[in-house]
Design goal:
The protein is of the alpha/beta class. It contains 11 helices and 30 strands. Strands 20-21-22-29-24-27 form a 6-stranded antiparallel beta sheet, with no helix packed on it. A 5-stranded mixed barrel has the order 6-9-7-8-12, surrounded by 4 helices. The chain starts with a strand and ends in a 7-residue tail after the last strand.
């Protein structure tokens, strides 16, 4: 048997603002440990290989906008994916899995796919792998397997799975999938012992998924097939045909296939559920991190330099020293450019905050102060009318695009490392403590030809300083227009 992880990297996680932003979503954040949720998910099957099962490199399906962040995070933890599929637009999980299954079958193999969202936390990895091993045997036999989370209480934020006929000790036939209930219904579900939370994690053989999506949603299967046939390779990325994929209907794995196969008693044992009790969370809100976090004697989860006085059942996370006094059931999250303070029991309303910020066109919904780019990163450390100051770090070998600006001039001062600067027809090398000036309208480029990071301070001045005032002529990362 061959097992292959499929990591679904979509989603923006706005309920985890201000740490999660549209340009840096929650799956790329290290919310429960030193590694990001994407990194942990990509390595979640490590060590599972045995005499009966081989593990293939994972297939990742993600948003084109995050491609360099995803690739860099995988490189940091030594994961070389079998494919990194870039969706030109979001079409939910059923098309994403269909593309991944096509990739898995492209060379004739037919692996069992372990389909995992990149933004889940599973604290007990050993228990998860045991459940995967059980599920894989069922999937190899042609079953469509999902994991059902053993409920920890009456939760209204999850869908539920009603258990049908038992298949030994390891699984049950799915009687039906149930939408998110109200509180009283959720209590009845949990008390009955016949329901599990719907995890959104699946174990399905690649050929079985392709057969079922073609049967249940031929429109999705056809559009994804056309997009895959028109795919192009760009460095380490696989780009499906844009026109075909944009025409694909949007639907989830549950709605497109699993619920159709179980509706009105139609399931004759092909859709099954394996119980999972591995300290799972989909991290849908800050309160979820409080629930799964390691608590002090007062029930607090504290991340960072925090002093908590007379504080109970509170989640505090920040980059600077945070002191709390007399708080109870509260969430405090601090970043370089925003602070959230909320009642833990009303934390879902963070989405309303994000909605207001979007309506006001505030950049804090999209970007952090520190912004990662394929060549390195920059941090906007100060700004005011007609000026902005950035700290810029360019990785060894990093090359910014050949570009110009209509509305701003730039001054560059090298703090450490060596900079190669193209300025119009001129090319020059700058060492530590040297500087140059880029006039408005002049074509320019910055490179790091050295083996150490290049750090510099950039001072912008002009009538408009937005990031959209960039005209790219050449770019190593496919961004020139």
């Amino acid at each position: 048997m061959i097992l292959q992880a499929v990591v679904l990297c979509g989603g923006s996680g706005t309920r985890l603002w201000p740490l999660s932003r549209e340009a840096f979503p929650k799956q790329l954040l290290a919310l429960d440990g030193a590694q990001s949720m994407l990194q942990v998910t990509a390595k979640r099957l490590d060590g599972l290989a045995n005499e009966a099962a081989a593990i293939e490199a994972p297939i990742l399906v993600g948003n084109e906008e995050y491609r360099f962040l995803i690739a860099e995070q995988l490189r940091q933890v030594g994961v070389k994916p079998a494919a990194l599929v870039l969706e030109p637009c979001g079409r939910n999980t059923a098309p994403a899995l269909t593309l991944a299954a096509r990739v898995a079958r492209a060379k004739g193999a037919d692996p069992v796919l372990v389909v995992m969202p990149a933004d889940h936390v599973i604290k007990d990895g050993a228990v998860f792998q045991q459940a995967v091993a059980r599920a894989a045997e069922l999937a190899e036999a042609g079953k469509l397997v999902t994991f059902g989370i053993v409920p920890q209480g009456a939760e209204t934020g999850y869908g539920y799975i009603r258990l049908g006929e038992r298949l030994g000790d390891a699984a049950s036939v799915v009687e039906r999938f149930v939408e998110k209930p109200d509180l009283e219904t959720a209590k009845a579900y949990v008390e009955s012992g016949q329901y599990l939370w719907n995890s959104g994690i699946f174990v399905i053989k690649a050929s079985v998924w392709l057969d079922k999506i073609a049967h249940c949603r031929p429109d999705i299967a056809t559009a994804c097939g056309q997009a895959f046939d028109a795919a192009t390779h760009d460095a380490d990325f696989l780009r499906p045909g844009r026109e075909a994929f944009e025409a694909c209907p949007s639907d989830s794995i549950d709605y497109a296939v699993m619920e159709r196969l179980t509706a009105d008693g139609a399931n004759h044992g092909e859709v099954v559920v394996v119980p999972l009790d591995a300290k799972w969370s989909d991290v849908g809100a800050w309160s979820a991190l409080w629930e799964i976090g390691d608590k002090d004697a007062s029930g607090n989860v504290l991340a960072g330099d925090v002093i908590a006085v007379d504080t109970e059942n509170t989640y505090v996370r920040g980059e600077r020293l945070i002191a709390t006094v007399g708080l109870k059931d509260t969430v405090v999250v601090e970043t370089a450019d925003a602070i959230l303070v909320a009642d833990r029991n009303q934390i879902q309303k963070v989405k309303d905050v994000v909605g207001r910020l979007r309506a006001e066109n505030r950049t804090v919904t999209n970007l952090h102060r520190k912004v990662y780019r394929p060549w390195g990163w920059y941090d906007s450390i100060d700004f005011g009318p007609r000026f902005q100051v950035k700290r810029i770090v360019v990785n060894p070998g990093g090359v910014l695009s050949l570009q110009m600006h209509h509305h701003r001039a730039e001054h560059w001062i090298v703090v450490s490392g060596t900079a190669r600067v193209t300025k119009g027809d001129e090319s020059l090398l700058l060492a530590e403590n040297e500087s140059t000036y880029i006039p408005l309208g002049v074509t320019h480029r910055l490179e790091n030809p050295g083996k150490l990071p290049l750090e510099l301070i950039e001072v912008q001045s002009g009538s408009y300083l937005g990031e959209d005032d960039i005209v790219r002529f050449e770019d190593n990362y496919g961004r020139a227009k």
